Task: inverse folding
């Protein structure tokens, strides 16, 4: 990959991933331009400051809802590559304000593509899709029966004789379960349509959950690590969380940036590529592993009323699930096997450690109206381009804990 002296335009440059990508490209010698919305306070966005990018990029004032400002940005940047990362990306907020999500994500993508078409731009555009597009993925017959009982139907249905759809490849059915996910499906299809209809050089990335230092405090990994650090510092006496049964494929943000740069130079135009780690872990495991990284030796867990007791729940195994061997905890295996499940009726979990008992309290307000039960990527396609994740879940947790330590001590 050679990005030296290339002109790169990033939408969402002030976001979590955008700032990491911009820093990498600056270090590669690129001329980096970023679309930044006008702020009433005139302040530089926090992520731009945190990555020390103030004097290293060219900010362009613009708004994806305003196609004129996007056309002006293309004129100024004359990009060789466009990374379209800008979006309203917080899933719960998309339920609270679906219209805002649609305008930012769907209309914003449409405006960018149309501006590129009108300007005859020959830049390669990489669209930041999402694993949330896959949504309701079936992992077992038991889960399928539960889903049918809950919703009555799913579309597309399982193929005859099929019992699970994991790991998730690019050809899996799309069953989005939030307004955010629906907006990403729209952008995904429109991005590929502009390749087929108008010959724009576009590529779709469907990245699974990516985390690291600086992830917004509203996202679940930061919700966990921020509270663990506050607990460690005596600033709180419990952890409050939503559904701990949900499984996610968490990847370090720097590995995702590697993937974006590889897609920019090696992907097939008009194609779709998953980005992820080919592992899946529960939110409960993220809590337990975060406690361990913070110096608590987790010995046992049980519900508030003493049920569902598990000893050594954070013990790591590499057993195969869905044909893939990956690192997971003992409680992950039990959840995947259907041996245990935690509900709002349990009220919470007591984590027994060598230091103290830690309360993990369930908050009904943090449960989604429609939950995505499991995300687990099949990344064989992007691996053929040379992309391999380098970081573990523990690496992600360490970076997040250190970030919050630094923030508390500033």
Result:
């Amino acid at each position: 990959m050679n990005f030296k002296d290339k002109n790169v335009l990033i939408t969402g440059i002030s976001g979590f991933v955008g700032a990491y990508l911009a820093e990498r490209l600056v270090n590669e010698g690129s001329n980096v331009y970023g679309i930044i919305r006008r702020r009433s306070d005139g302040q530089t966005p926090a992520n731009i400051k945190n990555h020390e990018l103030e004097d290293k990029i060219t900010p362009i004032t613009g708004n994806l809802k305003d196609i004129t400002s996007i056309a002006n940005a293309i004129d100024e940047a004359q990009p060789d590559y466009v990374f379209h990362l800008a979006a309203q990306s917080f899933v719960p907020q998309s339920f609270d304000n679906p219209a805002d999500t649609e305008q930012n994500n769907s209309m914003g993508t449409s405006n960018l593509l149309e501006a590129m078409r009108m300007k005859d731009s020959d830049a390669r555009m990489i669209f930041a899709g999402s694993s949330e597009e896959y949504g309701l993925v079936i992992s077992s017959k038991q889960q399928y029966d539960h889903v049918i009982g809950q919703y009555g139907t799913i579309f597309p249905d399982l193929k005859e004789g099929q019992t699970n759809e994991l790991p998730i490849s690019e050809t899996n059915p799309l069953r989005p379960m939030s307004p955010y996910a629906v907006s990403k499906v729209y952008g995904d299809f429109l991005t590929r349509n502009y390749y087929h209809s108008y010959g724009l050089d576009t590529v779709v990335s469907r990245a699974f959950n990516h985390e690291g230092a600086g992830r917004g405090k509203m996202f679940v990994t930061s919700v966990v690590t921020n509270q663990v650090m506050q607990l460690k510092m005596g600033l709180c006496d419990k952890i409050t969380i939503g559904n701990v049964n949900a499984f996610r494929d968490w990847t370090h943000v720097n590995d995702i940036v590697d993937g974006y740069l590889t897609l920019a130079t090696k992907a097939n135009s008009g194609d779709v590529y998953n980005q992820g780690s080919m592992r899946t872990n529960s939110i409960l495991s993220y809590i337990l592993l975060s406690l361990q990284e913070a110096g608590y030796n987790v010995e046992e867990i049980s519900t508030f009323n003493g049920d569902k007791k598990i000893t050594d729940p954070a013990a790591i195994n590499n057993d195969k699930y869905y044909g893939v061997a990956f690192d997971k905890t003992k409680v992950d295996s039990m959840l995947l096997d259907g041996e245990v499940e935690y509900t709002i009726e349990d009220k919470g979990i007591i984590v027994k450690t060598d230091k103290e008992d830690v309360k993990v309290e369930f908050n009904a307000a943090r449960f989604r109206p429609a939950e995505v039960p499991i995300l687990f990527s099949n990344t064989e396609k992007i691996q053929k381009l040379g992309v391999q994740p380098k970081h573990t879940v523990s690496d992600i947790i360490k970076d997040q804990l250190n970030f919050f330590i630094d923030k508390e001590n500033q």
Remarks:
- The domain at 7-214+251-278+372-390 is CATH 3.40.50.720 (Rossmann fold).
